[in-house]
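Course assignment 3, question 2. Fill in each field.
Student: A.L.
Task: Predict the tertiary structure for the chain below.
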Amino acid sequence: MMSDFSFLPAEFDGWRQAGETVFYDRETIFDYIDGAGEVYRLYDFRNVAVFTFERDGGGSVLVELFDMGSAGDAYGIFTFYHEGKDLQLGDGGYLRPQLVCFWRGQYFVCVSPCSDSPVPDPLLEDAARLIAAQIPAGGSPPAWLKYFPTRDRRAQSLRYFHSHQALNYHCFVSEENVLRLNEKTECLLGSYRLGGRSFFQLWVRYPTTAAADAAYDFFTRMYSPQTWQMGVVENDDGTWAAAAKHESFIAAAFGLPSAAAADSLRETTKHLLREAAKNLQREVEK
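Answer field:
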């Protein structure tokens, strides 16, 4: 079913749509963006409207308006590509040379020059702000995002996704889906620094505690040929991994420099998971 983009008028604030709008859905997205089309299909992508806006007095931009199905998945695809100068735009945006992207509600939007002729970044940002103002607000990032660790996290490294393929794109864990991720799981991943070295922290929220129990058992049996000792294990490359579980959450860390670091992080994470689960339950009961 085609998304309703009627909230965006054909002309406003000195900008007007030029030419026809072209739509691509989950099946035809590869006709528009070949390799990158699969990235959008890792989320609940519905379709994208592609059109050109022209400005009175000169200047034209290409607009790609992606309906991601939900605010959570619009936020997710935003984090997938998050890089550049952060902008207070929509529900979150960034500026790269000759590209402005943002998310608002269930939509992810990119604005770029529509030809080989460069367009000044301030003009791209102006167009993006006007478009963002037309999109109705709605939804928010995952409620448990605020509990995910921020200390020592690299700027712009936070990623939100659902699938095993997305996890391996950002942080390769295993060829096999050892955490049993699927379209119903919610994942947060961040890159961190410890003692001059980088490691990853991953939290996964499963739809039920039973699903998390089964996934944790499978993960600790299949992730490493080594035996887990109190939730930590040494990898073949000499780094360490840690894992913890509480109710419907699993947390794991990869690339830690020592057993002591892995054990310390695991204990801290267990406390954070308990707090997250307790506070989320309180919010549900309000």
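Instructor remarks: The domain at 143-285 is CATH 3.40.1000 (Protein Transport Mog1p; Chain A). The chain has a mean pLDDT of 91.
Grade: pending
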